[in-house]
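thought: fold this chain, then report.
action: predict
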Amino acid sequence: DVVGDVGGNVGGGMGYAAYFFPGAVVMTVMFATILAAYSVIEDRREGFLQGVLVAPVSRLSVAAGKIMGGATIALLQGLMFMLLWPMVGDLPSWLGIVQAVVALGAIAVMLTSVGFILAWPTESTAGFHAVLNLILFPAWFLSGAMFPVGSAPTWLSVVMWVNPLTWGQAALSSAMTGQRVPACAPIDGGIALLVAIGCAGLSLLLAGYVASCSGKNGGS
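observation:
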């Protein structure tokens, strides 16, 4: 079995707990970014967002400030959870620690930007929750966090490779474990990290574009 049982081994002799731990870190970051996205809707409902939008600053600055604030909080929560890593795996090198922090930061910016894009035109938390279930949770499930890309059927593995979160997950796993994990075995962790950073930058620019093209009240 490629994935292995809990407590068993994943490809390369890696225990499943060590394989799954980075995915749990990403999940922690994802829930923090969801709360940041919810705050966009609440700010509009309370009138705070309208007050910000009439200020003499660009919509891109407003979007970037909101996203970077939420991403920073999500990153800190993810780093706190990462402190439990020695319970399931060996400590990475100093370079691995730096790469893990950068990868987690890219993931936080990416997920916060996506949440911002989904929340900006949404008028109600119920509508946002419905869209959320269709995008963010499947993206995490198909990121290699729970099972390797190589163990999936061909059509599903293609979907996983296209998923930007897969590259962030692979970069984080590679940095923490010090090896090419089965989730992204043919790709070096450094390349996965560069792709994750690029996806984070593109998602941030897209969020700014969505904010710039919306109406005066921050809605559609």
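thought: worth noting. The first helix runs from residue 16 to 46.
final: tokens above.
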